[in-house]
Design brief:
single chain; about 350 residues; alpha+beta; 17 strands; globular
Amino acid sequence: MSKIKSVLRRYWWAIVALIAVLALCYVPLPYYIEGPGSANNLKSFVKIKGHADHRSGKFMLTSVMLAPARPITWLYAQVNPHYSVVSETEVNGGQDNATYDKVQNFYMKSAINEAIATAYSAAHASYQKTYHGIYVLEVQSKSKFKQAVKVGDTITKVDGHHFTTAQGYQNYIASQGVGHQVTITYQHNGKTKQASAPLIKLSTKRAGIGVGLTDNVKVTTKIPVKVDPGAIGGPSAGLMFSLQIYQQLTNQNLRKGRQIAGTGTINPDGSVGEIGGIDKKIIAAKNAGATIFFAPYVKPTKALLALEEDHQTNYQLAKATAKKYAPSMKVVPVSSFNQAIKYLATH
């Protein structure tokens, strides 16, 4: 025992240092670290039968790195301007990791479907959209359906009625009135189920089920297409996927050998929507050698800027970041898929 004490006294500083290093590297904090992710060549993500991509240049999908914070990474984020510390609630909205991942994967699936529809429509190639119903993103604590419906379920009917848009469901439900009992049919883990409960008053004062929702749409095509995003989730890949798919379908020389990165959601009407973390994506694009970056554009009104990240629109933040850290990269504002195509064809 005395020998052990002697060793501890002799090497106490080394033991304390080891404990400190372990704590810095492994003690979890209630935060996440956001930073520049990757900028991947979309040729490796998109496969279209009979339409290989042999053109030079790249369309690149940019992403944000997100990792649970540790003391050492928290300290690093304080001194590196490209990294940010965000709370767990800001990242996952209070959802557990499994639920958060499920929602992010669905967002990516939806982005891919809209990208396929947008590109095939622009290329005059045959495709078909099938509306399955409303995908459940969250269930409010006051919802009378909270014991039955879970995040990831798809509501396909209300009182036996199937609608072709989320708005159709919302209008029907609102017309029934608060307190009226409705029966929903929904898909849960591949099984069809039903549940009945009264409607509640939403924050909009209308009657509702009490769920956060988005459309669940499936796109099928005559020319087979497969898009595999790997482990990347979220909705922000829509624009770049649509450009890659369109490039392969038409075999136009849109890239002209250029390294083109970008981000933005793609909506059913072809418009491009804003996303988060665009400053990190600019750095990821710069690190990958991009010379052009497509950034979503919306008109910067006072009301909008009050809600925006750093009180700047996506385009404003992207342009400011590029000016400081990637001055040789051209940031191009786009509000639609057609606008991006026009820029590539004329520049």
